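retry 2 of 3: previous attempt timed out while embedding glutathione. Reduced batch size to 1 and resubmitted. Inputs unchanged:
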Amino acid sequence: MKLYVMPGACSLAPHIALHELELDHDIVTINLRKGEGQTPEHLARNPVGAVPVLETEDGRTITEVMAILLYLAQRKPEAGWIPADVIPLYERMSFVATELHKSFFPLFFGERIHSTPEAVAELGKAYKERLAPRWARVSEWLGGQDYLLGTFGPADIYLYVILTWWVRGIKESLDAYPNLVFFMKRMEARRGVLAALEHENLKPVMA
Ligand SMILES: N[C@@H](CCC(=O)N[C@@H](CS)C(=O)NCC(=O)O)C(=O)O
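retry 2 succeeded.
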């Protein structure tokens, strides 16, 4: 399998999954900042020019973090990442994808939406406020558990990557959410997480 990533981007999630599941893979880095997402080769893989993209041995090309994570989970059923009742898994993954992941575009790229620094700052403030009840929601899901569904799985990996953006990218604290702090520390004690971080030349955010 070949996974196209940009270090630290959402593609880190399937990268971690490949390590956690111990699946053979090659990583190809796409430097989006240098326009490598817009080359004809990459657009043929994903017409919106984004990472991640997974190419499988049997010739499938899969885009979308959630789809790739679920595909990888199905490749290794013995890991137990797909519970008998899939609804809580889909609910949490969909929440991370739509309510959390996509809230970061205005935080990272506000200047692509508004042209004045004041408007960009206001947009950022609004999105940070919008995220607060959403962090509370995932914190409540975690409760006293180690992972979102009790046992480790793809929703945890996806949530972990988005939380690294909050801490490393936006430089915000998680101190208001002790469950999330413990979750991040737990994730950063995992071998697969550390292996993918190292491959992408990244340090743990809770260190
Ligand atoms: N819905 C997509 C979003 C992918 C996405 O936003 N990828 C970002 C990196 S985190 C990207 O490649 N952005 C480049 C671009 O949109 O031009 C998914 O879940 O995979």
